[in-house]
Amino acid sequence: MRIDQFGAPLMVAWQFTKDCDLACMHCCADSSPGGRLPNELSRAEALHVASQIVQAEVPYVAFGGGEAALSGHFFDVAEALGRGGVQLKVETNGQRIRDRDLVRLAALPIRSVQVSLDAVTQTAYAKLRPTGSLEAALRTARKVRELGMPLELTFAPTNFNIAEADAVLDRAVELGAFRFNTGRLMCLGRAARLWEALEPASQEYGRFLRLLEHRAQELAGSMQLCYQPFSLREGVNEFLSEPPGTLIVAPDGKVKVSGLLPFICADLRQDSLAQAWDAYRAACRSDDVQNALKVLLYEDLPVVV
């Protein structure tokens, strides 16, 4: 496997907290207000993980959640990584992140700030993100660009918003995003439990995919339109062919083999980053993981992890 050539991960995807200021219908992490796990990494533990990431010369850390910035020690950890030369991506719903926090981020080696933008009308936005404000998300996106940080946008297609996809792409261009991320809705977490209400019809997906193919050609050279792998099944096939060089770290320090499976290969409370990387590579070769991924390929079942 290609990952056997690397002495450390190419990226750490750090799900920093389960706490969030929204409880979105399509959330694959099942995050919600007050959803912080009782055993999430402490400040000292998270800083210890960050120091190992720096020492291992991991080039890139992507912070997700929940809403990472809600954690009281998120910025301490982000700044420790930034001082160590690690590039950072920060995912946010853009609701309550403050200007002073964005200024603080802008002083770091930010590879991108990713804002979720699921609609161009408040009606569609609020159906997916109850109590959420489209205007707040737009304001955050504009502030990110004003501060000179690279902006990514992400769009999750559902029954409630897929008709607005073309207009959302136009808005992304207007906002100056360099990348737009989308694909088939992931049947994970809360989305899996609400699947019947959320999943677009197959003909809607067909129109959506044709739109993406058309707009990708039109926008080539000005904005990256990222939608492959388009489906969970395509993602599983890619993993089976070539496991990614990514460690997925949960809020409690557990290391997941894949976001699609409940397999844990290491615990950064007791294992070093190097041990976790070795355990991940071994897990990718294991019959248990290989067979579980193949089940996802051939059984059209919701995944709740």
What is shown here, in short?
With 305 residues, the protein is an alpha/beta fold. It has helices spanning 43-55, 74-83, 99-106, 122-128, 134-146, 165-175, 189-193, 195-198, 202-219, 232-241, 273-285, 287-298; strands at 11-15, 60-64, 87-92, 110-116, 151-154, 179-181, 224-226, 246-249, 254-256, 264-267.
Proportion of β residues?
5-15%
User: Regions with pLDDT < 50 over 5+ consecutive residues?
Assistant: 301-305
Amino-to-carboxy terminus distance: 26 Å
Q: What integer value in Å does the Rg equal? A: 19 Å
Q: Order of strands side by side in the largest beta sheet?
A: 7-6-5-4-3-2-1-8-9-10
Helices and strands, in order, run as EHEHEHEHHEHEHHHEHEEEHH
Helicity level: 40-55%
* Secondary-structure class: alpha/beta
Largest sheet: 10 strands, mixed
* Cα shape: globular
User: Tally of extended strands?
Assistant: 10
- Give the averaged pLDDT, no decimals: 95
Task: Supply the number of helical segments.
Answer: 12
Question: Would you write up a description of this structure?
Answer:
Residues 301-305 have low confidence and may be disordered. The protein has 12 helices and 10 strands. It has helices at 43-55, 74-83, 99-106, 122-128, 134-146, 165-175, 189-193, 195-198, 202-219, 232-241, 273-285, 287-298, and strands at residues 11-15, 60-64, 87-92, 110-116, 151-154, 179-181, 224-226, 246-249, 254-256, 264-267. The protein is globular and about 45 Å long. A 10-stranded mixed β-sheet has the order 7-6-5-4-3-2-1-8-9-10, with helices on one face. 41% of the residues lie in helices and 14% in strands. It starts with 10 loop residues before the first strand and ends in a 7-residue tail after the last helix. The longest helix is centred in the C-terminal third of the chain and has 18 residues, at 202-219. The protein has 305 residues and is α/β, with parallel strands linked by helices.
